[in-house]
Structures are given as C-alpha cells and as structure tokens.
Amino acid sequence: MLYPLVWMGVSAFKPSHLVLTDPSIIPTEVTLENFRQGWHVAGYPFLVFFGNSLVIAVSCIIGNLFACSLTAYALARLDFRARKIYFAIVLVSVMLPMHATMIPQYIVFSNLGLVNTFVPLILPKFLATDAFFIFLMVQFIRGIPRELDQAAAIDGAGPFRTFWYVVFPLMRPALITTAIFTFIWTWNDFFGQLIYLTSAPVYTVPVALNALVDSESAQGTGTLMAMSLLSLVPILCFFAFAQKYLIRGIATTGLK
After folding, report:
1. DSSP calls for 118-187
2. pLDDT of the residue at 251
C-alpha cells in the first residue's frame, strides 16, 4: 500500500529521464529541478491553484455544515407530513452515482452562465446535496435525548433556537467528521472540477496536475511526481491535526 507513495516521493527528486528507467528506491541522482519546473503551470505559479482548492474546500465545508445539519435536524426532530418519505428519498440518493446528475446539472449552470466559476462546485453544498452527511447527522441527532428539546421549548425556544443553542453544539463530533471528509473529498475531486473549470486562473490542484501532464507529456513524469507530492501536504497536515476528532466522531455519540 505504501510503495506507490514511496515511489512517488523518491521520483520527485530524480531527474525526469531516470524516473521510468531507474526503478531503484534509492536514487542515484538527486535534484530539485522537478519542483522548479513544476511550480509554474499554464503561466501561473502553483500557489494560485493551491489557493483555488483551499477556497473551494473551505466553502464546501461551511456549506455542508450549515445545510446538512439543518436538514438532518428537520428529519430527525420535526414532525411534518411525509417526513419518512423525504428521508427515504435522501437514502435513495446516496446510491445514485454523481454521473447520473452531472449532465442536467451542467446544463443548468451553463444556462445561468456560471461555468468556469467556483459557483457550481460550492452552491450545491449549501443546498444539502450530500446525502451521506445528512444520514450521518440524522443518526447522531437521534441519539440526543428529546428531553433537551422539551426543556428548551418550556423556556420559550422555537425549533430554530432549539437547534442552534441546544442540538447544534452537541453535534460537534459529527460536524468535525463531516468537515474532515468534505475537505479530503473536495481537495481530491477531479471529475467535477475538470467539467466546470476551463481556464487556468481558476484551476484547482487536481486540474492543474492534469494540465501539467498534457503540457509535458512523458517527459514531465518527474515534475508531475514533485507537484503531486506537494499536493499531499495539506491533506496530511489536516488529517494529522484532525485525526483524534475523526476517531471520536465515529466512535462516540458526543454525550457524556
């Protein structure tokens, strides 16, 4: 499992002509030329693509935390007509592949003139389209005692205030788990970003890596390995920081 990562790390410091011809783990020649050449893609420094990916990832995290938590609270706590039917639709949508909705969704954003912007990648997150996180939060909220809601109602709190001041703070483990998975999935997403982002200034890291392959062809293997190694750094740092919260969010209910 680790060998491909080790090979990528070693190849990042090899001259390009040795990446595919010298299979040894210990490089015979070491160079930083791959990083220097790969830092500029399509006329822009790679830092621009890091910034674009970060903007999209953070925005998607905020959208999922806001929309999915509200939706989950409504499905888990509020009594309204056809609630079970709506929840069943949410569960069914988990099994629906994203490719089935990609074309009609692209047509909608194209007609709105929003292609080649970040909006198609961010806006759906604020509309609670990630059914997996809704299901996760619904199950979590069901483990919170309803007596807390009743106590808030006695104090005069409505559904939204009960959610914001009582339920939402207790959802911290589930929220952190959602934030971690959203960041990793958004940062690594290639297909959706490739569809909507068509010009270099708005490229994200995966799309920029693809452009690097197209522009350098087989001679840019070392450059691709170098930039791929750099693209892993934010995820590794984020996961190292949030690992204990991820385990806690999955293994516990958040209640003492």
Report:
1. SHHHHGGGGGT--HHHHHHHHHHHTTS-HHHHHHHHHTT--HHHHIIIIIHHHTHHHHHHHHHHHHHHHH
2. 59
- Is residue 173 within 8 Å of residue 254, measured between CB atoms? yes
Q: CB atoms < 10 A from the CB of 252, how many?
A: 13
Q: Could you read off the pLDDT of 183-239 as tens digits, one per residue?
A: 999 999 999 999 999 998 999 999 998 888 755 455 578 888 899 999 998 888 888
Using CA atoms, how far residue 134 sits from 26, 65, 76, 119, 141, in Å, is 47, 10, 10, 21, 10
Q: Which residues pair with 41 in a beta bridge?
A: 44
Angle in degrees, 0-180, between the axes of helices 172-188 and 131-141, rounded to the nearest 10: 170
Looking up tokens 């050449």, which residue turns up?
37
pLDDT cut 70: percent of the chain above it:
93
DSSP 8-state secondary structure symbol assigned to residue 219: G
What secondary structure letter does DSSP report for 198? Answer: -
Eight-class DSSP state of 44: E
pTM comes to: 0.86
Output the pLDDT for position 254: 44
User: 177 is written with which tokens?
Assistant: 């788990």
* pLDDT tens string 65-87: 999 999 999 999 988 888 889 98
Q: Which two tokens stand for residue 63?
A: 């959208």
Tell me which CATH code domain 3-251 carries: 1.10.3720.10
* Count of C-beta atoms within a 10 Å radius of residue 200: 15
Domain ranges of the chain: 3-251
For 214, counting Cβ atoms within 10 Å of its Cβ (0-12 exposed, 13-18 middle, 19+ buried), the class is exposed
